[in-house]
Amino acid sequence: MLARLATRPGGMDGGQVTFARFAFGVAAMGALFLVRPGTFRPVRYGLLASRGLFGGVAALLYFLAIQRIPAGEATLLNNTFPIWAVILSLFLLDERPTLHLAIALAVASAGVFLVLGGRVERLSLGPGEGLAVLSAVLGGAAVTSIRALRATDNSPTIFFAFALGGLLVSTPWAFGGWPTDPLPWAAALGVGMVALLAQLLMTEAYGTLSVPEAALWQQLTPVASYLWALALGESITAGTVVGVALGVAGIVYGSVLGHRPREPLSPEARAAAGIPAEEP
Question: Distance from CA of residue 189 to its chain's centroid?
Fold first, then answer.
């Protein structure tokens, strides 16, 4: 919702919003690292670089797609990134979804389509659609990197790599003409603040959720985006209500039945993790 406010006619373009978002993220993390020395603890530099590059380019392409095609269409195509993440994690991390989780993901995805379907009159393969699809593929690679990184690197370090990568790829857009209206600036600042919180929470979640499990929960993103857009005067249709219900039902179903049984930790693994012997 805030990105759409920032990119309204007379405001910023998609590249400028991306630059402003990541500039805020880099500044906020830099301040955190100064206040709390030792928080920045990079371990796997190659994966951090892939997180920054893939995630930064994916975010940039998504904002550029919103400029070229309807927001609903761009969101629908971009939101296929959890599917790409599941496919990549299957081959790269050997994280195989259960049958229940696959069914739940399909149900939640159908709900997303219904939520956004009223906003998509037709799908074609133009430049805007190509940007949105490529953003989804790269976004899937980025979240697969997050899952691999969470075994060794903390959330602030991973987010800083993402913000730095996004800042670098969006820097060319910083040299264009910037708007004088304060509304786009306020909206872009809001994008930076809420994206910072959302990304840190998502990265933290990947420490305990597999990629298929997280992909299921991330189907709530376009549902929430559409509901937030009501603040911009958009209406709710019967298809939207059914879609939200399907999305929530899919997530509940997958959360209850979709987990693989986790093997109990050995005494050695419990000691290495710092878990007292008396704790379950």
Answer: 18
